[in-house]
Amino acid sequence: MPNLYYFNVTIHVLAAMLWLGGMFFLGVVGAPLLRAIEPPDLRQRLFQLIGERFRAVGWFAIAVLLITGVINLHYRGMLHWDAVLGSMSFWHSSLGLILGVKLLCVSIMITVSAVHDFIQGPRAARAASGSPEAIRLRGRAAWLARVNAIVGVLLVAAAVRLARGG
Fold first, then answer.
1. DSSP per-residue string spanning 38-85
2. CA atoms of 78 and 57, how far apart (whole Å)
3. Which long-range contacts (CB under 8 A, 24 or more apart) does 123-128 make?
4. Is residue 11 classed as helix, strand or coil in its secondary structure?
């Protein structure tokens, strides 16, 4: 493999670390710490500011992951229609099945991220702090973030299997 392939894989892994590591940091460190902040208006504002900042970083990481992921498939010879993508035998092989799982996880991750970042999160930020509606909306946003973290772990597991040949 050419050196550009290894550089691309490195960028791909760093973007995955940024995205998934950021989610785990927010879930394990940031959110529990912020829940102790008083008054509720300040807590909500801090959640909003941190969420908006991570949203920008997260979507940048997702864009990098998509671009470098396609380049990785190119370097590994997996972007050919006849021999690979259009071949049922490929999709029934262990490599094809793992690639399918990874692509499914990517689709779920992007969908859940979009709902969290552009629908549920902003709704929670607009709700009156401490209100039952704000608590309900933040709970839904937290649930979406947890689902995304689980999908992220599954994605990493699929990536490891894919890198090892299925």
1. SSHHHHHHHHHHHHHHHHHHHHHHHHHHHHHHHHHHHHTT---IIIII
2. 29
3. 124/47, 125/44, 125/47, 125/48, 125/51
4. helix
Q: Which residues contact 124 (CB under 8 A, 6 or more apart)?
A: 47, 134, 137, 138, 140, 141
**Tens digits of per-residue pLDDT, 146-158?**
999 999 999 999 9
Q: Which two tokens stand for residue 20?
A: 């998934």
Alpha carbon distance 145, 19 (integer Å): 12
41-68 per-position pLDDT tens digit: 898 889 889 989 999 999 999 999 999 9
**Residue 54 identity:** F
* Rounded distance between C-alpha atoms, residue 124 and residue 143, angstroms: 13
Whether the bond between 32 and the residue before it is cis, its omega within 30 degrees of 0, is: no
Tens of pLDDT, residues 1-37: 799 999 999 999 999 999 999 999 998 999 899 989 9
